[in-house]
Amino acid sequence: MAKSYNKQITRKSFLQGTGAAFAGLAAGQLPAVSQVILNAQDPLRIGIIGSGRIGGAVGLKWAEAGHHIFFSSRHPEELTELVASAGEHAQAGLPDAAARFGDVILIAVPYAALPQVGRDYSSLMQGKIVIDCGNPRADRDGPMADDAIALGTGVASANFLPGVRLVRSFSCVSYTMVQQAPRSPERIGIPIAADDDEAARVTARLVEDTGFDPVFVGGLERAREFDRGTSVYVRGMSAAQLREALGL
Ligand SMILES: NC(=O)c1ccc[n+]([C@@H]2O[C@H](COP(=O)([O-])OP(=O)(O)OC[C@H]3O[C@@H](n4cnc5c(N)ncnc54)[C@H](OP(=O)(O)O)[C@@H]3O)[C@@H](O)[C@H]2O)c1
User: Fold this and answer.
1) Please, what are the domains in the chain?
2) What is the pTM of this model?
């Protein structure tokens, strides 16, 4: 059974946490705090498109933190065991149902599937916070991966997902790091890039809920700085090490 709301994040602790996450911003430049943030102790409704290794591992951590999770697959009957592990606030269905369910959506599919996911489900995710953790790699995804790396994933994914509040995050940790989080004594840092301040803040909360430290890097254009092939990709760096490596 999922531990219900076992990680009650007070508004104070959340804001302190995101203060650290947004260390790249000068004092006084913290984005406005909206109702979603004021209710930071409330569970979120999260849809997961792609409930494989990384989507499954992250979704389990979020369920443990008390969030309501809709895992999805094109074969949802194969998710019975995952849903049972996630507990009473988890369910499974098809990807379109996950897109409808979530206030926040995690997309964790092979990058080559992202154009189709965008075509089929963007209309269901308009204005929603969408976290994309996919990594283009030509050996798996074909030539489109090289185009995405050349553009940078923040820009490339935004082209595939029009109208959503896109965040690039959870892309440069492995699913085994997620399963083993939090690392002691020092947590691993997870970079966040987004053009939408509130989407970045909500993602920072979700990074903390998985047992990692959020590091806000900047807008989507800067997501390329932690893409596959960079010096910070899946290195298990702490937040401080990430900030130094990224010049934040
Ligand atoms: N593995 C990691 O440690 C890790 C870490 C960070 C980021 N990533 C990135 O995250 C993405 C997923 O990696 P993964 O290792 O979790 O892959 P995976 O284990 O193969 O899971 C991917 C899931 O995506 C679903 N999927 C595939 N095509 C789809 C489509 N067209 N529509 C809807 N769902 C679709 C599949 O579900 P069904 O076939 O059941 O529908 C599958 O369960 C990749 O881009 C990867 O580079 C992976």
Assistant:
1) 11-245 (3.40.50.720)
2) 0.89
